[in-house]
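Reader question, answered in our methods column.
A reader sent in the components of a multi-part assembly and asked whether the whole thing could be modeled at once rather than chain by chain. We filled in our standard form and ran it. Here is what they sent:
COMPLEX SIZE: two components
ENTRIES:
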Amino acid sequence: MARNKEKLVLLLDVGPSMHGVLSEVEKLCSMLVEKKLIFSKYDELGVVVFGTEESNNDLTTEVGGYQNITVLQDIKVVDGDLVDTLQKLPRGTVDGDFLDAIVVGMDMLIKKYKDLHKGKKRLCLITNAIHPIKDPFEGSKEDQVMTIAEQMAAQGMKIESIVVRGRFSRDANKGVMDENDHLLSIFSKKTRTRTVYVDTPTSLLGALKTRRVTPVTVFRGHLELSPQMKIKVWVYKKTQEEKFPTLKKYSEKAPASNKLATHQVKISYEYKSVDGSSNSVIPPEQRIKGYRYGPQVVPISTAEWDAVKFKPEKGIKVLGFTDASNVKRHCYMKDVYLFIAEPGNTRATLAVSAIARAMKEMNAVAILRCVWRQGQQNVVVGVLTPNISQNDKIPDSFYFNVLPFAEDVREYQFPSFNSFPASWQPNDQQQKAADELVQMLDLAPSGKEALLPEFTPNPVLERFYRHLELKAKQPDAAVPPLDETLKKIIEPDLELVAENKSVFDALHRHFELKQNPKLKKSSRQWYQEKQSGSNVSGGQAVNSIENQPPVKIEKIGDLTPVQDFEAMMSQRDNPEWVEKAIKELREKILALLIHPDGEDKYQKAVECVAALRKGCIIEQEPGPYNDLMHRIRQYCEEKGIKSLPQLLASRDLTLISKSEAEDSNVTTEEARSFFVKMEPKPDV
Amino acid sequence: MDLDPEDVFKDEEDDPDNEFFQQSESSKEYVVYLVDASPKMFNTTCPGNDQKDETHFHTSVSCIAGSLKTQIISRSYDEVAICFFNTREKKNLQDLNGVFVFNVAEREHLDRPTARLIKEFDCIEESFMREIGSQYGIVPGSRENSLYNALWVAQALLRKGSIKTADKRILLFTNEDDPFGSLQDAAKKDMTRTTLQRAKDAQDLGISIELLPLSRPDSEFNVSTFYADLIGLDGEDLAQFMPSASQKLEDMKDQLRKRMFTKRVVRRIEFHIANGLSIALNTYALIRPTVPGAITWLDSVTNHPLKTERSLICEDTGALIQEPPKLFQPYRNENVKFLPEEIAEIKRISPGKLRLLGFKPLSCLKDYYNLRPSTFVYPNDQEVVGSTCIFIALHRSMLKHKRFAVAYYGASSHPQLVALVAQDEITSAGAQMEPPGMHMIYLPYSDDIRDDEEIFPDTEEDAPRADEDQIQKAAALIKRIYVKDFSAFQFANPALQRHYAVLQALALAEDDIPETIDETAPDEEGLTRPAVVKAAEAFKLSVYGDSYDEESDMGKEKMSEASRKRKAIAENAAKDYDWGNLADKGQLKNLTVGDLKVYLNAHNLPVSGKKEALISRILTHMGK
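And here is the structure of the entire assembly that came back:
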């Protein structure tokens, strides 16, 4: 999109007081360029650092002054060298003057583009703004800033300022800071951008939007309150997830000598009939789409479908207003939309403002039915919430969240907490410990909110782009670990934890957790690993031994026949396991009868019989078991063994009856009397 | 395989929860609906909608019909059987008296629901008395025990498949809390014992029996008379098991419907609260978009399904690629290659764990912090004993102090920052409206949030703000179209309803497709009530003034210079041809698409479509 090429000049403060965060500034800026290299490679960028020992810029050579400002890189189309430049910013030695730097940056943009590309020219200032700027030759600092800001607006430039404060500026002069803040606010007012204050390295990484997405409206048209009352609105996306880049597949088939090889991979699809009789490919015109309806597949041609499918009219209609408490926060389904009044339409802006403010006062929300485009095949029902603007320049607007339909909700019932046994209920002390934790582990003390989504970078994407940059230079580079700054997003803040040590101690004192001994830990862990591993693209990425599935039992051994049998029965990958297990255990039992071992000679055999009986009932396979029982009875009768039948009878290990397994032809009575019947027979 | 080419390219980032939610064949459920059809079910009525009384039988049957319809949409791999007991006729494999298994053609007794089953079951009530009939199965002096028989039949139906791969359930609908009440001592004792034994045998085989009791406000269903023993409830569970003695039939139906679904755990996760303090949680997907099922390609000649073969072909050599290929990203004029394992490694951040970072007041959770449907979490004491206790303590504190927890959830394919919002249990008329637990809301990162409201305006002035009078007028209008009890999911998805109505009709080879009702259509009638119209007019007057005219809106006046110029050119160009003449001679087709579009533009007609469409549009416009 050549017409959206952005022209950006970075103005970076590298003075001594900034040294603590410069490595984050380097990361932030190189990330900006890395993303530009992929997503908007025609953007142009220049880099100015201030606070350096030496001075090197056009203005200082042309008119003098503008000391300690170095143009590190003239404005040019982004390239890999820029990343390298930004990754090793010079460490300055003097406290820089950000206003001078702004003027140098403006001068670069004006010289290069004259008054073209209005609205596409941008300055981005990163400073801590704790040092006073020089007094102007005439007038006040404020007048001077005003003049510059007006000039900027006239040139169609915008300036975004990121001010690093917090723990990095604790001993700074408050008066100077306030003055600087005021001066910077003039810029943001005049160019309608904002000044962002960050107080941790982590939020600095998230402070600058590293990828600009040209806003596109989802809908332009009327918001219909009633047939009489309509408001012209434009709808944008308010949030949209920045996805992990979709990588292309790489083919290594081309010989290395082929310099022109694209290494691209084409994916082809062939449709063949399943019955396999003819292995021919079915041409597209002979294919028809089938939709599942239960077990049936219903063929419908596109034309037929077009004739009958649901076709709503484009438009946004209010279904009604309701109390905000009727719409639960967790029902929001998707990313969020923004409704603004048609730009430049004063009366629509007024109408939106009036409705939004009235909704806010009444704590009401509106339920909307939206069809964004003509030809859309579904409708969207959602909730409109007011967004009252805090900035005088920005009109009031609405946020819109999609709500679920009846089909989208699973109304599971969960036991009420009150119904749990007393041992599961927290006692007063436990409740107190939890209260303390909830109050003390505070991420938003006195308005200073940590991990504000607006300023929190995505650690996965940060990691990807850093790895990409590393790999470009060193193809076999390993995936870098998350650095300390990013760890703040995934782990609790150590300082906060240390401050609240007593709270955590209390927590440990009052709550006791035990692994349930009944569950085999290893299998549980294996299950979890499997869960987390199963989503990994390409499968076995994990290298540790823990991920090995438990050893497969393929044979019933002598040592632990019962366990082996159960393990085999539970191997679900192939139905043959069950058959094999039953057969092998039967043989084992017979072997045990003929060669009984030691003292409790039949004990082991009886255990096996019990296991087999259970297994056969679960699998509803009474045949092999009943068969075996008849053989055992016969064997005992022949050999005159009394103890075994008694043992079996005492443990109710009789035939499997029809009531236990449908396939059995033995009645309950027959089963009960199975061993009884043999008793009258005397030992012959 | 139901591969849709478009689907294959779906990002691997797609919600991992969804694939667990979208049912697969490997985890199915077998359900036998066991419906008491005794005369008592027909005699007992409940006041329903429209002041009409509904019998308990009707209530049960309509609940099952509703559930079948839901099931065929979202869980069509589950198999069901419908079985009546206390019937006059008998139909079952064991040939037991008083039990009738309802089925339709081309379907096994326990099988996936089909269009025909749904259709015929919908009108079962009309034919029931004639074909199946109602009759008490347990009467003094007879040794018949219809409840015993019913359980036996149900158990036999559920013989199919192993309990390891399928969930087997019997759902028993009845309004008789004392089925053996009419019998004398010995017979009663005997029958009670054998029936309980039968139930226990079934449960030992891994079949769960659930009771869906129906009762009237004046005669409550007493679970402890008999059924508590049958379904194996004791002390605490019994208290938990609230018989649906609600005032309204709707509530009872609601409860029945809710009980008919089993909970499906999406996964177990570890919630790391502090060092050495990690509890176990189960996550559930309570809200996920339901979409029409995947497309299966068919051979249009034979109507047999086709299998899709996907092959990777090297563009340089044309060779087939067997092994999973490396991935690459063009960067800095070269291709940076990644192994799939490396990508997985990049995304692996504290896998499987939910790590507590801290707490914030609920006001910090902005309306626009949302990306995906939330996930529900509920403690699980089975693996880590003590989990529930600490969870309840945190839950109560968070509710009390109106705070939510911020945590990092290391889902393997989609690690993300989340907000955990405590939800208190909400019950209404004995039914649970909101379960107690926490909702995990996925938070956006800085690059996911856009500031589009700041693009406009380009003017120097402050943005216009409504004044007090305008706000008052708006409030008056809002009050006129206020809905008192709105529930977030009261509407059926009209597109989905239509989709399945069409499919059902085609599956049964019916000619006319039933009309579906679009519940999301605004209440046109309500909006034209004089009071609403008056309020709307008043608001309109106050913000738009009395000279408001839809067409000459501000937006139109401010049409940009460029587009006005374009339009002027188009209008001039349109005069270059004698359109009427060309059309008469049928020579429009000799013009280029560009020329045709000039005409369309000049007359404010849509310019989309193929050339033929453009020509026919021009002809229509000319009235020819």
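What stands out: The mean pLDDT of chain B is 77. Chain B touches chain A through 248 residues (CB under 8 Å).
Send us your own complexes using the same form.
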